[in-house]
Amino acid sequence: MINQAPVSTARSRTGSIQLENAVRADRAEFLIHAQPSTLNPQLSTLRIALLTGGGDKPYALGIAAALTSVGIHVDFIGSDDLRVPELLSNPRVNFLNLRGDQRHDAKPAEKILRVLRYYVRLVWYAATAKPKLFHILWNNKFQLLDCTALMLYYRLLGKAIVLTAHNVNAGKRDSNDSWLNRLSLKIQYHLSDHIFLHTNGMKSELISEFRIPESKVSVVPFGINNTVSNTNLSSAEARRQLGVSETDKALLFFGNIAPYKGLEYLIAAVSELLERDRSYRLLIVGKPKGPESYWDKVRRTIASSGIGDRVSEKIEYIPDDETELYFKAADVLILPYVHVYTALACPRLPRTSGT
CA angle 162-165-171, nearest 5°? Predict the structure, then answer.
């Protein structure tokens, strides 16, 4: 069984949920501190708009469950991917599918159209929305617009704004930072009434680099990802499906392929291992993110190192319901991060024996 874990603004440990964060704004101030089985009568009329990224189940489902468990009603801004029974069957969730189809294989013209359509729907929703509190889980495609114009628009509408910042400055992380990027982030952070982060290091960075008062910041560790499938698929069957031999020592690199993930260092280490033992197999599973030159360089390194026959690649986005296959096929998960900018949330999938 996968343990329940803290997600976004909720911490769930030893059977209790504590949401104890004060959010102060011109028109909204509340304090939440409740047990999961207890409905707080003062919160039963409170309604929050949860602006998700459209595919962020580990965050979105957890926070929706936590908020509704204490009697809060949630306008859940979602997509086709998040149209799941956990939300549709919850009487305190008003599911609004403003994003629609989020398929990664859509044509460029379709992607542009759906992004523009979402912005139009979002602007209209904000103007007519009943919730006075907006919780932004992710920014959208146009970072500059989201950090400035949209934030100002929400404030002009009298909304209190809570922001979950998954990266304090992704531009700095990805080596493409600029004065405009930093200015837009500063505007968003200062227009937010409260900001949630996942580590104390992120909190220190936010306070020191963007001059955000400590009172506006809360650290909520991100826990185990319990939204991925965990069926009766055995490790032996998973390895068979992926073409991994029973004698292979399977090493898994999983997730976005980006410079800060340090994949090139893993390739170098695996090359040394294979000089001593050819039974190691590296599984690289994920979608390149950032400059295309990075993944091209990694591939050239694999080829020039002569380890191509011991590397299996699945270079594409892996949906949650397929994650189990790769984790159960692997003997070990390796995360060779150069920098860790946020908390990690790995699924707990026990490796099983048998066929």
Answer: 140
Q: Would you say 178 and 147 are in contact if contact means Cβ atoms under 8 Å apart?
A: no
pLDDT at 10: 38
pTM assigned to the model: 0.76
pLDDT at 174 over 90: no
Question: What is the rounded distance in angstroms from the CA atom of residue 285 to the CA atom of residue 124?
Answer: 39
Q: Are 195 and 218 in contact (CB under 8 A)?
A: yes
Q: Where in the chain is the domain with CATH 3.40.50.2000?
A: 11-219, 235-333
CB atoms within 10 A of CB 344: 14
Percent share of the chain, pLDDT over 70? 82
For residues 203 and 217, the answer to whether their CB atoms sit within 8 Å is: yes
CATH superfamily of 11-219: Glycogen Phosphorylase B; (3.40.50.2000)
* H helices, E strands: number in the chain: 12, 15
* Residue among 333, 246, 249 at smallest CA distance from 284: 333
Q: How crowded is residue 16: how many other Cβ atoms within 10 Å of its Cβ?
A: 11
| CATH 3.40.50.2000 is right for the domain spanning 235-333 | yes
Q: pLDDT at position 36, please?
A: 44
Contacts made by residues 140-147, CB under 8 angstroms, sequence distance 24+: 140/53, 140/115, 141/115, 142/115, 143/181, 143/184, 144/180, 144/184, 145/119, 146/188, 147/184, 147/185, 147/187, 147/188
Q: d(Cα 133, Cα 320) in Å, to the nearest integer?
A: 29
In whole angstroms, what is the distance from residue 188 CA to residue 81 CA? 27
Q: What are phi and psi of 329, to 5 degrees?
A: -80, -20
**How large is the C-alpha radius of gyration of the chain?**
22
Distance CA 72, CA 149 (A): 28
